[in-house]
Amino acid sequence: MALSFGTLVLLSVGGVLALTVSANYRNTFDLLGAQSTLLVDAMEDSLRTEMARPESAVDGIAQLYTQGEFQIDDEDATAAALSGALSATTQATAMLICTPDMVCRGVSRRRDSDPPGEIQRFAPEAETSPQTLAALEQRRRVDGRRWGAFVSNQYGLFAQVSVPLSRNGATHGWVIAAVELHKLSDITQQLSTRFGTHAFILDGDDRVLADPRLADPAGPKGAITPLMPLAAFGDPVLAAYPERKAEEQFDARRTRDVELAEIDLDGDKDTSNWWNDEASYFAMTRKIAGYGERPWTIGAYFKSSQIAGEIERVVASALVGLGAMAAAVIIAILLGRRLSRPIQAIAGQATRVADFELDGLAPLPRSRVLEIDDQASAFNAMLIGLRAFSTYIPRSLVAKLVRSGEIGIVESREAMVTVMFTDIADFTALSERMGAAEAAKLLNRHFAILCRAVDAEGGTVDKFLGDGMMAFFGAPDHLKGHAAAAVRAAAVIRDELEADNRSAATEGRPALRVRIGIHTGPVIVGNIGASDRVNYTIIGDTVNVSQRLQELGKVLAPEARTTIAISAETASRLDERFETIPAGTHRLRGRGEAMAVFVVGEVHAGAPSSETHEASAA
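Now predict its structure.
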């Protein structure tokens, strides 16, 4: 028994040590790469802030035009509106309005004014640049706000965002804000200085979009420009970026889609001491979409030798751990003579309880050893209580709260989440033709389908409301892409209900029609209730909008088996793998302003899994 117990300790402690060393090794990449990871996060925040303000500016102009505040052919009113928007948007260099006849007018910042940045207007002029004409022609075929292709002229290279100017259902032109790309290089320069790394932004994977060298006023004039190929830019690390080797042990899902890759400049690296190789670099990158025809790659690189000390400390800690494990095995053998086998059962059962895996757990047997018998009795009593407790709360929610390990995560806080409401159409009439037990069995089967889909995508089932369900994505653990996760869950529900309805036809059960509403927005999430009775739930207008969208399903597709109605805010967070069909603008019950609504069509294979969690609110 002593030898068996010693072996158990050896395996358990050895396993823990191996996991710990492995985790420390991975955490070394995480911690030592945290500076670059924070840089990527800060760069994305700065970039999105830089781009969000021009977006707000063109949205504001479009709204003013829709409300009839100015006419395009009223030069003074148009210039005043554009000048006001440009004055409030320091990120933009120019704002203009182009009409379908390819005539553009607008305002821009003067480069030769004192002080610089004085706004000047330019008269309507027919556009003649083939590049600009092609961009306008492409813009004509796309609805909504859009970042288009880069445009260059004698003043520089610009990214441009545009929104249609529509009134009474007709599009009369487009308002465009131009952002000079050198402003993005300012971001890379500031963050490179702040974090001691080299930050950069690429267009796709092969062209330099922003770099500290492009922001340095003392740098080479004309020698390097934005959108140069990596090989021609003059940075050997970026030139070797396409041949980078991604580190497999660095899971991008744990780092919010940040890829850690090794870049070797000499091609003949000694793998036994790679962290001290001066020709080896690490690059931390993330891809973001939505600002052009191709995704952008934002990130930073640093020398591998910067982490040499940390790697050596991991090796030293592993050696110390081996010594501690040997001592633990010796002590375990000595103590094992006085302990019995039920200890193994207690350890195994306790591990499953810690993971909230209560199904299939058998009560522990009694023991002749008093201490172990007391433990078994206490454990069995605890198991009975937990099983009764778990019947009335979502197990997945408890598991997430336990897994997060964050102090105060259940305290009420504001968060951006995606809320889902479901409802069975005409269930009241259906239930009147059924017995209570039959109706309950039908609902339990239906809710099991819904819960599986929500849990699989990392969502949280909040409550059941009669024949409906409320769930949310993005709390308590911060889910990367919670809007996409909610829509994927809804698509799975739709598919599984379709299959279940086919089975119902052969089994004599009634087929169900379900409406689903999804909306993304801010909520208050946390423990809500009295001091002795609380619920971990969400409150806020976002919840109401989601429920109203679910109700709108009866209007959008009254005969559909499953209708998935989503808001424009949710649709804006989806990529091309999600088919969103515009369903018009609707005034939801209880809301003053109408909002755009979309219906979800096909969700194509290849949409990323929702297992990625963020360490900050989405």
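Residues 609-618 have pLDDT under 50 and may be disordered.
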